[in-house]
Amino acid sequence: xxxxxxxxxxxxxxxxxxxxxxxxxxxxxxxxxxxxxxxxxxxxxxxxxxxxxxxxxxxxxxxxxxxxxxxxxxxxxxxxxxxxxxxxxxxxxxxxxxxxxxxxxxxxxxxxxxxxxxxxxxxxxxxxxxxxxxxxxxxxxxxxxxxxxxxxxxxxxx
Length: 158
Ligand SMILES: Nc1ncnc2c1ncn2[C@@H]1O[C@H](COP(=O)(O)OP(=O)(O)OP(=O)(O)O)[C@@H](O)[C@H]1O
Ligand SMILES: [Mg+2]
Fold this sequence. Notes:
By secondary structure, the protein is an alpha/beta fold.
């Protein structure tokens, strides 16, 4: 199943992040949620993540983790882990940081530059591609399993 949406500006990107988070929370979930965020530098992966996290009441700034690979947020009884693997030189580092423990039933893992962690990450429930469209963006979301499908169902009906 897939879902596409045109995003006119940064504000709309954040609003969509809120809607996506709502859909994740509404979807039935026994094993946590893993989302790969794909797109070129500056496409809006972190902006979308910020919209998702701030929609749960987080007031602080949400920026990509730079000196660590992951930033964590504990909000609304959820553990949200925002990964940015751009600077990861060897995917084995993920093994050393205990990456497997991050993927559990209470977690929402949002992963930028997931291709750098190839072979060491939980499979995605959703893959989100963000493409440049002049100043706007085009988002294309693809479900990878039934949990991902449920999230897209929620997106389509809210
Ligand atoms: N329609 C739009 N949606 C999202 N961001 C937009 C849009 N139009 C312009 N922008 C700008 O594009 C930039 C997106 O930056 P952001 O850090 O979210 O990208 P990123 O995909 O996380 O990049 P990186 O790969 O470097 O981490 C921001 O400066 C934002 O203001
Ligand atoms: Mg980013």
